[in-house]
Amino acid sequence: MPAYRKSLVIFAIFTFIILGSVIAVTIVVDPFFQYHKPLPGFPYLIDNQINQNPGMAKNMEYDSVILGSSMTVNFNTSWFDELMGLNTIKLSYSAAYPKDQANIMEILFDSPNQVDNVFLGIDVITYMAGVEETKYPIPEYLYNDKVYDDVGYLLNKDVLLNYILRPIADQEKSDLATIYASWWTEEYYDEEWVLAHYTSPEQTAAETPSDAYIAAVEANLSQNICPFIEANPDTDFVIFFPPYSILFWNDVLRENHLEATLEEIRYLCERLEAYENVSLYFFLDQEWIVTDLNHYADYSHYHPDFNRYMVECFADGTCRVEDIETNLNHMRNIVEDYDFDTLLSGTS
To answer: DSSP string of 56-70?
Structure first.
């Protein structure tokens, strides 16, 4: 054999061995959990919602699921076990749109798990997104069951370096109960900090029609949420509205869509409460929470203590919606009676 052919053969064999070894290591460790649940003792790093949620939904063991945006990342799943006896997994997507929820629900309801409870946080502003719109591009090879397109995972430099080799070196295993938790420490939950980083919108003259958001919300419910509720009558869907701070409502007033926002919430509740396997919880009008900016790190993100409070409410029924009109009227009164001028007098 000529020398150059021999060299090519040796190179090809060497390349095959290297690539085969990378594939084998990725399959065995499986840091995105595409093929099996976590290996006992391996220090898995779980910090990538888009890439790791689908594998966790496929292969981890659970009977309950937390879904939602960054409003849900500070839930500790051990609270659900402590207060409700549930084996819960958190599959949050920051700034998630309804289509993001649909994508992960399709996987979790196709998993071997019996899903008894889905805790779904609703952010009203996201339900105006397009029905096929996701917040970030989805790596389809991680969200389907096809094997032939997994090369993007099996031969991925970032996977090898950051999710296999780095955890081995650092040995900082993620706590599955608290994954995705926000970076804010105690000193950030402070009114002065929040106001210093908040800019009040310019006043909009024209009022948004009260029904302006209904068509988009109806489309998202019909395509991305309600089909899963209907197809899984044995699953309890606990759907909740997180407690945005009073500054969120300042935005709503300044942008002149208070009635449209309240009408959107009304439509969401009336549509969802028609299902026997849905219970609604309304935290938007918890005045003692939302009017104290020391509970927040920005205009909407609240202290983890209130994630704990919400789990306590799920456990004992506090804040469950009995009459949405009562909640909406209370919310309207809080907003209309609040002294925003005094609150914002020191801001630009």
So the answer is: HHHHS--SEEEE-SG
Q: Give CA–CA dist 89/59, Å, rounded.
A: 11
In sequence order, the 6+-apart residues with CB closer than 8 A to the CB of 284 are: 241, 242, 243, 244, 265, 290, 327, 331
* pLDDT tens track for 196-245: 999 999 999 999 999 999 999 999 999 999 999 999 999 999 999 999 99
pLDDT (average), residues 244-252: 98
Rg (CA), the chain: 23
DSSP 8-state symbol, 109: T
Measured CA distances, 61 to 21, 87, 102, 141, 223 (Å): 29, 8, 20, 22, 27
Which 8-state DSSP code applies to residue 318? Answer: T
Helix ranges (DSSP H) in 155-213: 157-160, 166-170, 191-196
Distance CA 52, CA 175 (A): 14
pLDDT tier, 263 (very low <50, low <70, confident <90, very high otherwise): very high
- DSSP conformational letter for 48: -
Those residues whose C-beta lies under 8 Å from the C-beta of residue 239, and which sit 6 or more positions away, are 120, 121, 122, 272, 278, 279, 280, 281
DSSP 273-300: TTSTTEEEEE-TT-HHHHT-GGGBSSSS
Say which amino acid occupies 261: T
Give me the numbers of helices (H) and strands (E) for the chain, helices first please.
17, 5
Give 6-40 pLDDT, tens digit per residue.
667 666 777 778 888 899 999 999 999 999 999 99
In this structure, the number of other CB atoms found within 10 A of the CB of residue 100 comes to 28
Query: Which pTM value belongs to this model?
Result: 0.95
